[in-house]
Design brief:
Length: 186
Amino acid sequence: MAESLASHGTHGDASHDVTKRDFLKLTTAAFAAIGVGAMAWPFVASLAPARDVLALSSTDVDVGPVTVGQAITVVWRGKPVFVRHRTPEEIAAARAVPMSDLRDPQTDQSRIIRDPWLVVVGVCTHLGCIPLGQKPTDPKGDFGGWFCPCHGSHYDTSARVRKGPAPLNLLVPAYAFTSDRALRIG
């Protein structure tokens, strides 16, 4: 009978040890997972945009005071955006260009939402320079739009590249008119 109790007691202790070991393994794994999460959270959080960037995710522009032929520059996401109130002559010149003459073929109509307004990111697609052509006294290049003096890219009145090393047209950002006098970029 003593043998029986001794073997029963040993067996009971082994069962108790297995349960205790499983509990310790689960507890250790849970603490390790919490520790890894606590260390990874600041890294993952640092990948999110900063508050000041989120504040610049959209820009409202009052285009009411912009007269025909005038252009303004606004900042959106840290980049200049050119908003031009084009003349009828500028629109006609942009629409008269054959697609075969364009390096990055896009129709004028596909680059605008509402005539006579053209809205483009004012960063040259060659090396990221800021083209000239916003001020009345700026050189506008061979095609009446914008000219990048750094490397000689010329853009037309629809901001399409026509000459020089730039491979693509000036980018048209996401924008919408919120009224007859205002638009929202972004």
